[in-house]
Input
Amino acid sequence: MKLLVTGATGKLGSLVVNALLKTNAATDLAVSVRSPEKAESLRSQGVDVRHGDFDQPETLEKAFAGVDRLLLISTDGDNETRIRQHQTAVQAAKKAGVGYIAYTSVVNAEHNPLSLAEVHRKTEQTIRESGIPYTFLRNNWYLENEAGSVQAVTHGAPWVHATNDSQVGWATRRDYAEAAAAVLAGEGHENKVYELSGKLRTQAELAAIAGEVLGQEINVQNVDDAAYADIMKGAGLPDFVVSMLVEMQSAIRQGALAVESDALETLLGRSAQPLSEGFKAILGN
Output
C-alpha cells in the first residue's frame, strides 16, 4: 500500500513523515513536494520523493499516480489561492485513481467564524463531491501559533490578547502530526470527521503554563480590538497581518475554537503532549 504526504518538507508535513517512518517501511511512503532537492534526506532513507506543485496540475496527477492513500495538507496563502490549489489537488487525485484522502481542516469547519474556515469548508465539499473516501482531520489551534506571545514575554512584554475568557483547544503540532499519521496508515477511518482538540483553556490559563516553564509570573492583558491592533502595529507588523490577527482574535472571542473533543487522544492512543513540553520546545529548552 502506497501512502503519500503532500507538503512533506513543511512544519507539519515533516513531522507526519517522521511519525510514519517509525511504523511503516520507507518504500511504502511517497511525498509530494514543490522542491524535491529539499527532500534529499527522505530520498536517502528510501522514501519515494515526487515533484508536485499545486500551481501545476499536471505535476500533481503524476505525483499521485499509484497512490492508495493520500494526506492532503492544507497549503498557505490567501483564501482564493488555497481553495484553487486544494481543488486542483483533489481533481488530480481523482484522475490518478487515488483511493482515499485525509485532509487537514479546522475545527467546526461548517460553522466556524474564522475567515480561514472558508478554505476548509469548500475543500471538504470538493472532496465529498469527488466520491473518494475521506477523513477530515479538523485541527484546533497549534500551540506553536502562540510562539510570538511567548517570545515577547521573555523580553519583558505582557501577554496580550483580545479574546476575553473564550477557550481554545491548543495542542502541539507534533500531536496533530502523529494523529494524521495514525489515520493515514490505519484502518476504519473512511468517511469520518474528527474534531481534534486539546483540553479547552483560556489565554490566561495558557499564559500561566508558559509562566511555569519560564519561572516567572506573566502579566496578561485582555484588550479590545483597537488596542490589540495598535500593539501589533507597534511591533512592526504590516497592516494586512494586523488585520488578519485582529479578525482571528474576534472569531476566537466568539467561540470559534471552543470545540471540546477527545478524538485527538483516541487517535494518538495516549495522552496529549503536555503544553509545558511544547513551550519548552518553542523556547529551545
